[in-house]
Amino acid sequence: MMDKFTFFWCLIIVAMTFFFIGVYKNFAVKIGYILWVNNRRHNGEGLGWRENLALLMPLPNRRVVVDEALLQRRIKNRSEFLWLRHLLIFSGFIVIFALDLFLTFAGHYAHHYFHYEYFLSGPGKGVLKFGMELSGAALFIGLTMGVIHRIVYTKAEKTYVELKLLLLLWLVTATGFLAEGIRLAGQTDDLLISSSFIMKPIAQWLGTSFSWNWQVLADGVWCLHATFAAAFFAYIPFSKFIHILSAPLGRSITQNGEYAYQKRQRISEGLL
């Protein structure tokens, strides 16, 4: 029988294959086309290689990338509520992803070369688990706000919010909490259980109320969680989310170029 980590890595291979296909098709090709159109008038005559490279491959404006691609300040112009939703989802996702990545690679691979005992079995692991629980809670609250708002205001929000992607990430987060709660229900003597300040009381209630095979159930829910996570990453480049990133990058690159001029002309003519 396949163990859960082998199952997980099989999912990762499949998900990353779809992810890179989508990134190439829906992001790299579009940004490449924008660069080509914007810079085809530059032939680099009389310029050094650095200046010529700067013309052919202009770097995105950092302020535009931060304000529009990351902080999404345009959303704030629409609604403070929507911007709060975005910040909860974005910050929660980034923090929990970074901490989980650290625990996974440090715990299963890097410990052969570096000593991370403080974070893998010592007090540091409790700090990391607390951080993951806190960021996961922020993510779950933001996603729940987003799902409810998207359903209530379907007509107004369908242009901006990808419901499938939102629901997938909600399921990833919910099953992550559920897997942790079920695991702790079978391991109530876990020394770091207090770090799971949200799932600890739920796990204790489950452990005293039901006599199930918690280890088997925890493995099953974990595999479900991993499946949703892989599906989420595979779907990202095929969703509207990729446009949220590519549009500000495109604008920052072309804001003073020929492509920007053509686009403004088309907008004024009602073609875009």
Automatic annotation (TrEMBL):
<protein>
    <recommendedName>
        <fullName>NarG-like domain-containing protein</fullName>
    </recommendedName>
</protein>
<keyword id="KW-1133">Transmembrane helix</keyword>
<feature type="transmembrane region" description="Helical">
    <location>
        <begin position="214"/>
        <end position="236"/>
    </location>
</feature>
<keyword id="KW-1003">Cell membrane</keyword>
<feature type="transmembrane region" description="Helical">
    <location>
        <begin position="130"/>
        <end position="153"/>
    </location>
</feature>
<keyword id="KW-0472">Membrane</keyword>
<feature type="transmembrane region" description="Helical">
    <location>
        <begin position="82"/>
        <end position="110"/>
    </location>
</feature>
<feature type="transmembrane region" description="Helical">
    <location>
        <begin position="6"/>
        <end position="24"/>
    </location>
</feature>
<dbReference type="InterPro" id="IPR023234">
    <property type="entry name" value="NarG-like_domain"/>
</dbReference>
<dbReference type="Pfam" id="PF02665">
    <property type="entry name" value="Nitrate_red_gam"/>
</dbReference>
<feature type="domain" description="NarG-like">
    <location>
        <begin position="134"/>
        <end position="250"/>
    </location>
</feature>
<dbReference type="GO" id="GO:0016491">
    <property type="term" value="F:oxidoreductase activity"/>
</dbReference>
<keyword id="KW-0560">Oxidoreductase</keyword>
<dbReference type="GO" id="GO:0005886">
    <property type="term" value="C:plasma membrane"/>
</dbReference>
<dbReference type="InterPro" id="IPR036197">
    <property type="entry name" value="NarG-like_sf"/>
</dbReference>
<feature type="transmembrane region" description="Helical">
    <location>
        <begin position="165"/>
        <end position="186"/>
    </location>
</feature>
<keyword id="KW-0812">Transmembrane</keyword>
